[in-house]
Amino acid sequence: MDATLAALADPTRRKVIDLLREGPRPAGELAQAVQMSAPALSRHLRVLRAGGLVRAEAGGADARLRLYTLRQEPFAALQAWLDQVQAFWAEQLGSFKDHVERRQ
After folding, report:
1. Alpha-carbon span 63 to 59, nearest angstrom
2. First and final C-alpha spacing in the chain
3. Which residues are CB-contacts of 52 (< 8 A; sequence separation ≥ 6)?
């Protein structure tokens, strides 16, 4: 979870995630879309891979070409945690509402 949140803390990496939601893309296309040099984007992709958010796969006939895709698992884990936090606050607010209604 920490690696996921750390990876998503950067706006460039969130933009890359948004682009990959549309489908697999090569690093060069991602770099162009976020208006960044390939070496600079490579550092962001490394963080996203280390956090388990994306994977790189060989794409097409050119073995040098890497297509980046999203991995579902870390997002599912993040959603499960957020659901727990939301349930906590819903319970707290419900209790507060009941308390206010009893006092009236």
Report:
1. 7
2. 43
3. 3, 4, 71, 73, 74
pLDDT at 54: 97
Determine the 3-state secondary structure of 43 from DSSP.
helix
Sites in the chain below the pLDDT cut of 50: none
Q: Tell me, what's the pLDDT at 63?
A: 66
pLDDT digits (tens, 9 = 90+) for 75-89: 999 999 999 999 888
Tell me the β-bridge partners of 67: 26, 57
- Neighbouring residues of 3: CB distance < 8 A, sequence distance ≥ 6: 50, 51, 52
Could you give the CA distance from residue 28 to residue 36 in angstroms, rounded to a whole number? 9
Q: What is the DSSP track for 32-100?
A: HHTT--HHHHHHHHHHHHHTTSEEEEE-SS-TT-EEEEE-HHHHHHHHHHHHHHHHHHHHHHHHHHHHH
Domains with residue ranges and CATH for the chain: 1-102 (1.10.10.10)
